[in-house]
């Protein structure tokens, strides 16, 4: 066991010693890389410990409880993709621990009404039970991710993402014309890249003869993405500079276009070419005009 892995195990042991005598903690479960066998943790991996508690407030509004696990240097609250809250902590030695805090009542409701697919996928990748007073982990029926092939999108879902992308291409060009570099770059390299990633995931699933696990948030993209995408991404991100944002926006548009066209072709859907043509023409017009940096153009 490496020094880092040993330090995380010691932290887990301290958590167990403290939590055993706290009946409000109904479950403590390790998720993520330190619980799975496929692409397991390395020395850079963090530790994710899901806490199912009767009252989340003390864990979200106070920090004294963290001292039971060790000395910490930084902590803050962050929303999870599922809409819950987690406390993120940096302990001494650079140990990075995320504590998603789930109300017990919410967990019970989820168990009664059906486990969302994204939750099943997380548990299906691996779970390590530390405390489980009500067999919550067993009742979640973790599924083997290999038995859950990715669901291909409907035509409506694909068209929605395509239209969203082309709308924001124009929006970004307007911000860039106005001289709002921060806003333009944030949209091109942030929001539009999320739409690009979604299309890339669909592209991998729709065009590959072998079933690929596209993970989440671009994890391990270098192993599952089309090599043409990896090459195209070299030009798709911008420096904080007007001309470079313009260049990166156009490169992102080119990359998204062929991905979306191949997805719709493979799935036998209709590609909304009129939206692409209109957006591309307008972006080119906006970016070819002398923008100045005025702020009275109404955008």
Can you characterise this structure?
The chain is α+β, with helices and mostly antiparallel strands and 299 residues long. The protein folds into 2 domains: 145 residues, 2-Layer Sandwich (Beta Polymerase, domain 2); 134 residues, Nucleotidyltransferases  domain 2 (Four Helix Bundle (Hemerythrin (Met), subunit A)), CATH 1.20.120.330. It is built from 11 helices and 6 strands. Strands 3-4-5-2-1-6 form a 6-stranded mixed sheet. A hairpin with a 5-residue loop joins strand 3 and strand 4. Helix 6 runs antiparallel to helix 10 and helix 7 runs parallel beside helix 10. The longest helix is centred in the middle third of the chain and has 27 residues. The radius of gyration is 23 Å and the shape is elongated. The N and C termini lie far apart (57 Å). The C terminus is likely disordered.
Rounded Rg: 23 Å
* Strand ordering within the main sheet: 3-4-5-2-1-6
Q: Can you count the helices?
A: 11
Largest sheet: 6 strands, mixed
The fourth-level CATH homologous superfamily of the largest domain is: Beta Polymerase, domain 2
Order of helices and strands: HEEHEEEHHEHHHHHHH
CATH architect. name of the largest domain: 2-Layer Sandwich
């Amino acid at each position: 066991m490496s020094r880092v892995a040993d330090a995380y195990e010691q932290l887990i042991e301290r958590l167990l010693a403290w939590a055993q005598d706290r009946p409000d903690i109904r479950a403590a479960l390790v998720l993520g890389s330190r619980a799975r066998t496929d692409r397991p943790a390395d020395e850079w991996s963090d530790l994710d410990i899901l806490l199912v508690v009767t009252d989340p407030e003390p864990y979200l509004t106070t920090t004294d409880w963290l001292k039971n696990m060790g000395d910490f240097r930084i902590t803050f609250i962050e929303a999870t993709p599922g809409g819950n809250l987690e406390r993120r902590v940096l302990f001494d030695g650079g140990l990075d621990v995320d504590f998603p805090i789930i109300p017990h009542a919410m967990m019970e409701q989820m168990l009664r009404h059906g486990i969302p697919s994204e939750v099943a996928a997380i548990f299906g990748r691996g779970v390590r039970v530390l405390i489980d007073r009500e067999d919550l982990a067993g009742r979640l029926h973790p599924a083997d991710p290999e038995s859950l092939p990715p669901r291909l999108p409907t035509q409506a879902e694909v068209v929605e993402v395509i239209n969203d992308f082309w709308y924001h291409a124009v929006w970004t060009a307007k911000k860039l014309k106005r001289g709002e570099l921060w806003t333009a770059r944030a949209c091109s390299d942030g929001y539009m890249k999320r739409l690009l990633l979604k299309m890339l995931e669909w592209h991998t699933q729709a065009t590959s003869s072998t079933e690929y696990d596209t993970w989440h948030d671009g994890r391990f993209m270098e192993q599952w993405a089309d090599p043409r995408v990896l090459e195209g991404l070299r030009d798709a991100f911008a420096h904080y500079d007007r001309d470079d944002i313009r260049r990166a926006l156009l490169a992102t548009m080119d990359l998204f276009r062929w991905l979306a066209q191949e997805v719709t072709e493979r799935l036998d859907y209709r590609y909304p070419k009129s939206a692409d043509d209109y957006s591309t023409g307008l972006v080119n017009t906006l970016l070819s005009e002398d923008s100045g940096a005025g702020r009275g153009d109404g955008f």
